[in-house]
Amino acid sequence: MVLEDNRYFLSGGVDPLELIEQYGCPLYVYDSAIMERQYKRIINAFQVKNLKINYACKALSNINILRVFKNLGAGLDTVSVQEVELGIRAGFKPQDIIYTPNCVGIDEIEEAVEFGVRINIDNISILEQFGLSHPHVPVCVRINPHIMAGGNNKTSVGHIDSKFGISIHQMPLVHRVIEATGLKVEGIHMHTGSDILDPDVFLFGAEILLRIAREFPALEYIDFGSGFKVPYKEGDIETNIEELGEKLSERFNEFCRDYGRDLSLMFEPGKFLVSEAGHFFVRVNVIKQTTSTVFAGVDSGLNHLIRPMFYNAYHRITNVSKPMGKPRFYTVVGYICETDTFGINRRIAEIHEGDVLCLHNAGAYCFSMSSNYNSRFRPAEVLVHEGQAYLIRKRETIDDLLRNQVEAPVFSQNGVGSR
Ligand SMILES: *Cc1c(COP(=O)(O)O)cnc(C)c1O
Description:
By secondary structure, the protein is α/β, with parallel strands linked by helices. The protein has helices at about 15-25, 30-45, 65-70, 80-90, 105-115, 125-135, 170-180, 200-215, 240-260, 270-275, 305-310, 400, and strands spanning about 1-5, 5-10, 25-30, 50-55, 75-80, 95-100, 120, 140-145, 165, 185-190, 220-225, 265, 280-290, 295-300, 315-320, 325-335, 340-350, 355-360, 380-385, 390-395. Strands 3, 13, 14, 15, 16, 17, 18, 19 and 20 form a 9-stranded mixed beta sheet that branches. It has an 8-stranded parallel β-barrel with strand order 4-5-6-7-8-10-11-12, surrounded by 6 helices. The structure holds pyridoxal-5'-phosphate. The site of pyridoxal-5'-phosphate has 18 residues, from helix 10.
């Protein structure tokens, strides 16, 4: 958002307060111009013959967001067969979807095979079962490079005790399974976690992956995963994608020359593509002062945006209604009956009850992690695209809460489930 004449605007001059008037509060608003900017940054950072960016749609899985990326030329990274189906319904070609599940059963993987998408396997048990039943379906193998990286222990997924990927030390067993079953390995993959700051950590992981890739003669692609960090606070550092692109491209091109063929270089970012594009608007219900703290209590909570409580994530908070007020310190909390803190001791332009606040960086892992806890409705979602605002998800109603509830006959009393 930009501040002009004491008011905030989304791209194309869209006024967020007007959106709230129209669609209600709380409200998620996404800006496609920022998604496009981020996508193009990656595309422009790499100089390789075949580059494929697969949007990791667990970050934000509204079908319209998927289409934004499809129109930009991206593929899709999926972690469940349901995400695969969303991708197909959004119009992605099966070969542009990669399915990277963890700890799912062979039956779910077989469903994904039916959709015709690329299969990425991350454990030897499934590799063996899959090789026996589907020797002619090429697969990608997810490697665990054993590097410790990432913003916190819940998002660091490439270290030695992680449940993700096949250990680099088990490659002899992988080769034995492949020989025995006749499987074709078309891709090699790693994903070491979210919020990696340092291009050199990436390059270190890349070296490990490339060393293993040499052992597979029929590759079509090498997938370097994701973990690009974006700024959350003012002055925050982010992954230097331009530097990474330059260094990794050079290394990758050299690898392809040695390998004897041009492979595709793939990435599967989620956060980098959508985090900054999202804004979550909430209204302040109550200002409450205790002996030590001034609370601003808002009409939302960890049911709508769990990252601060779940990951200790920092989301910048601004007063959209009165941006020019004198800054004061507030602890912004939600309405859930549990400690439910969005931000502690934040300097925010003076807040009055009724003001609208914005939680920034609300594109990735915000709506997609939301729930109905406390029997609250999930908010509406709006997409701003080329100066127009489109409602892309309706706010829920009581019928949504009751949709799959079944009245057992023994408790049935006419009209509980409907009015
Ligand atoms: C979650 C996930 C991603 C995306 O990670 P970001 O940190 O959002 O970029 C990529 N690949 C896989 C396999 C994932 O599980």
